[in-house]
Amino acid sequence: MTGNRGYLISTIFNLDNGIMRFFSRVIDLVILNLLFIICCIPIVTIGASLTAMYSITLKMVRNEESHIIREFLKSFKQNFRQGTILGAIAIIIGFFITIDLRIIAMGYDNLKIVEILCYAAAFWSYIIFLYAFPISARFIYTTKEVFKNSFMISSVNFQWTLLLILLNVPFVAMLFYSGVSMLLLFTILLICGFSGLALIQSFIFRKIFGKYEIPR
């Protein structure tokens, strides 16, 4: 009986055990999420932080990651210039689209076509940047090539693109459902929400990226 109990305990706490691997992965995601948030604080570094986070999660789905903190900081440094440029462009586009929609919302009915164009631009901009940071993290491209390939890959794999968009629906629903759900959402995001979503997305990106150039 004692031998069986000892075997059970040793099995549970064995690092190769499925349960221990799961908790180890959760801890990695919490650490990665914290690194991502900290590196986003200057605002202008959001793009570089996103790229670094995807570089880790894309390795996670292949079981290629080793030291989370060291690899994140290394990727953050390597992709700082391109990631920052991508992030800055995303912020600028988002800013101008928001301003245009606010002006239209003031009651300018003759700008209905402009409103439709703004929503179309917002939709495609979101899709392009949804791919841009993972592509920048996984492939060696110029910034121009990142945008070009983001558009082409997202269009060719549109069924997967829709799935990637749908993954955000629960977060949006929690944001607007109630004050309690909003608080819960912020709590999840602070703990492991960003890294967790990136990891789920990375399983899809792995399937998509496997069709194209050899990753770095």
Summarize this, please?
The protein has 216 residues and is mainly α. It has helices spanning 2-12, 18-40, 46-60, 68-78, 80-105, 112-138, 143-156, 158-166, 169-177, 179-209.
Description:
By secondary structure, the chain is mainly α. It has one domain (2-209). Helices cover 81% and strands 0% of the residues. It has ten helices and no strands. It has helices at 2-12, 18-40, 46-60, 68-78, 80-105, 112-138, 143-156, 158-166, 169-177, 179-209. Helix 2 (18-40) runs antiparallel to helix 3 and helix 5 (80-105) packs antiparallel against helix 6 (112-138). The longest helix is centred in the last third of the chain and has 31 residues, at 179-209. The N and C termini lie far apart (52 Å). The chain crosses the membrane at residues 30-54, 84-104, 116-137, 158-177, 183-205. Keywords: Membrane, Transmembrane, Transmembrane helix.
Walk me through the topology.
Blueprint: H1 2-12, H2 18-40, H3 46-60, H4 68-78, H5 80-105, H6 112-138, H7 143-156, H8 158-166, H9 169-177, H10 179-209
Helix pairs in contact: 2-3, 2-10, 3-4, 3-5, 3-6, 3-10, 5-6, 6-7, 7-8, 9-10
Spans of at least 5 consecutive residues with low confidence:
none
- Count of helical stretches: 10
How do the SSEs run, as a string of H and E? HHHHHHHHHH
Shape: globular
Cα-to-Cα separation, first versus last residue: 52 Å
Structural class: mainly alpha
Largest sheet: none
- Level of helix content? over 70%
Q: Count the E strands.
A: 0
Portion of residues in beta strands equals under 5%
Number of domains: 1
InterPro entries: DUF624
Protein name: DUF624 domain-containing protein
Transmembrane segments: 30-54, 84-104, 116-137, 158-177, 183-205
Keywords: Membrane, Transmembrane, Transmembrane helix
